Amino acid sequence: MAAAPAAPAAPAGGAGGARFPVESLTGFAQSLLQAAGLGEAMALDVAEVLVEGDLLGHDTHGLQLLAGYVGEIEKGTMAREGLPRIIAERPAVATWDGQRLPGPWLVRRAIDWARPRAQMHGAATIVIRRSHHIACLAAYLEPLARAGLVAVLYSSDPAVASVAPFGGTQAVFTPNPLAVGIPTSGDPVLIDISASVTTNGMSGRLKNAGRQGEHAWWLDALGQPTRDPAVLFAQPPGTILPLGGLDAGHKGYGLALMIEALTGGLAGYGRADLVEGWGATVHLQLYDPAAFAGAAPFTWQTDWIVDACHRSAPRVHDRPVRLPGERGLALKRAQLRDGVALQAGILPGLAPLAERLGVALPDPLR
Does domain 85-197+241-337 have CATH number 3.30.360.10? Predict the structure, then answer.
């Protein structure tokens, strides 16, 4: 396999460019979640998934979510204990009611259910309704892909609408993310995208920073394209454009409809039902290539594609083609070695919460 192009160095973050050991951040997040009422094992799952998001560079869906999760636990809108309820189950297919339990914990339990069944039957699918928010979708992929499984994950939130259908001005969808982990003989390909041009989290971050989008990613309430994310939070609100924008947004619109069918449709619970609050409807599917043409032929094909992409002449001469997830995995390796560089406002934003709950802030590397 051709050598991957070098990824950029991890950005400086935190106060004064401080970096933090992964174990310190995970322990801090776990302690906050436990102080709010989650049990030790459940809190650890959530903490690890949030920190994994930061490790991979998905920092709008890492520890930035922690304060919101703690608030949901304290309000009782995220369940502190319990088990998912089985709605339906066949040998390689299941539907669960997540009963508003923490999303990262539920997705990890769904992986535990699906993995042996995919290895037995070739594929396994599980959908979860009434999950709480599941954080960064890419955070679940690497271990599965390194084990030789293709992982496909979709999510929608029936309580939130910020994306209009193509040609419309009133929100119907969430950004509806989808993620795919693809094995190769080297690093896996980790795809994490959404059916919209940008996300709610990035829109909020740009608005709070007083910044504009790079392009017209939003429509105002009158349907006029704009680079200003503040229109999403105005009254009446604007919307996020579907993937493809004004020219090809029918493609993102089609993806959004597909994801709605594979989440809310298969789960039998979604936008047609009463709103319960911030959360997720989830679709997880695992494939074992060994059950199809074989694991070696699979990676023969994926390796060829990876090499072909790397060999493609770059449009900008000093920016070689990368595969999805390549930068994230390189960033993760760098941050595991050198410490995690959090976005500057994350720990200061968590400090009052930590003080109230009696949890010490993590110490930076010295």
Answer: no
Strand, coil or helix: what is 64? helix
d(CA 69, CA 73): 6
The answer for residues whose C-beta is within 8 angstroms of residue 63's C-beta and 6 or more apart is: 25, 29, 50, 51, 53, 54, 342, 346, 350
Low-confidence ranges of the chain (pLDDT < 70): 1-16
pLDDT score for 334: 97
Residue pair 190/325 in contact by the 8 Å Cβ criterion: yes
Report which secondary-structure segment, H or E, holds 283: strand 280-287
Report pLDDT digits (tens) over 265-297. 999 999 999 899 999 999 999 999 999 999 999
- pLDDT, one tens digit per residue, over 157-204 is 999 999 999 999 999 999 999 999 999 999 999 999 999 999 998 999
C-alpha span between 34 and 304 (Å, rounded) = 46
Q: How far is CA 325 from CA 4, 119, 141, 153, in A?
A: 12, 24, 10, 15
CA 238 centroid distance within chain: 23
Cα radius of gyration (the chain):
20
Backbone dihedral angles phi then psi of residue 280, each to the nearest 5 degrees: -160, 150
In the chain, alpha helices (H): 22-36, 40-55, 66-75, 103-121, 141-146, 200-208, 245-260, 266-267, 295-311, 326-338, 346-357
